[in-house]
Amino acid sequence: MDSLAEMKAEETVIIDLTAKSSIADAMIITSGRSNRHVSAIADKVMEELKAHGRTDLRIEGVPHCDWVLIDAGDVIVHVFRPEVRAFYNLEKLWGEDRPGERRVV
Asked: Is residue 40 scored above 70 in pLDDT?
């Protein structure tokens, strides 16, 4: 979360998945203003996760940087450009308005 704030990621949302899915414990959804910003945010998150000993990381979407997914096992991070985020609307899919989810602006 500190890395996202430092990189000026926008409209960050944390969704608790523990009661919804076994794929992860939490999903973080955030936005960057452009492809370059999305790429920079994803790079910083990967760098920080590796610095904290995470080696089992998987990343997808880097060539285009419209939507980058970082799978860190128990946490999944989605970094979107705003229009791509609006199109896929993962917050609605995973039920942002349910108890347990919080917006971290």
From this structure: yes
pLDDT single digits (tens) 8-25: 999 999 988 887 777 888
Tell whether the torsion through CA atoms of 16, 73, 48 and 45 is positive or negative: negative
Report d(CA 61, CA 38) in Å as an integer: 10
- Topology of domain 2-104 in CATH is Beta Polymerase; domain 2 (3.30.460)
Structure tokens at 27: 């999903």
Between β-strands 26-31 and 10-16, what pairing exists: parallel, antiparallel or unpaired? antiparallel
pTM: 0.84
Q: State how far the Cα of 66 lies from the Cα of 33, in Å rounded to an integer.
A: 10
Domains of the chain, residue spans: 2-104
